[in-house]
Amino acid sequence: MRRSLHKEIPCRRAKSSKPVSDATAPLTDARKLRGKQGYAN
Predict the structure, then answer these.
(1) What is the pLDDT of residue 29?
(2) Which residue in 14, 12, 39, 37 sits closest to 25, CA to CA?
(3) In angstroms, how far apart are the furthest CA atoms of the chain?
(4) Which DSSP category does 38 fall into?
(5) How far apart are CA 39 and CA 8, in angstroms?
(6) Long-range contacts of range 36-41, CB-CB < 8 Å, 24 or more positions apart?
(7) What is the pLDDT along the chain (41 residues), one digit of tens a residue?
(8) Sequence ranges of the domains in the chain
(9) Distance CA 27, CA 15 (A)
(10) Residue 40, SS3 per DSSP
């Protein structure tokens, strides 16, 4: 859901924290888990 928003509306926040791209969409999820569990990927 959020991924589509990042694709269409590149916010400054989204740009700095995670690159706006369809290919990097799954990576953003991995980053979230990585921050919580340490290394989910």
Answers:
(1) 72
(2) 14
(3) 30
(4) S
(5) 29
(6) none
(7) 555 555 655 555 555 555 555 556 666 676 676 666 655 44
(8) 2-37
(9) 14
(10) coil
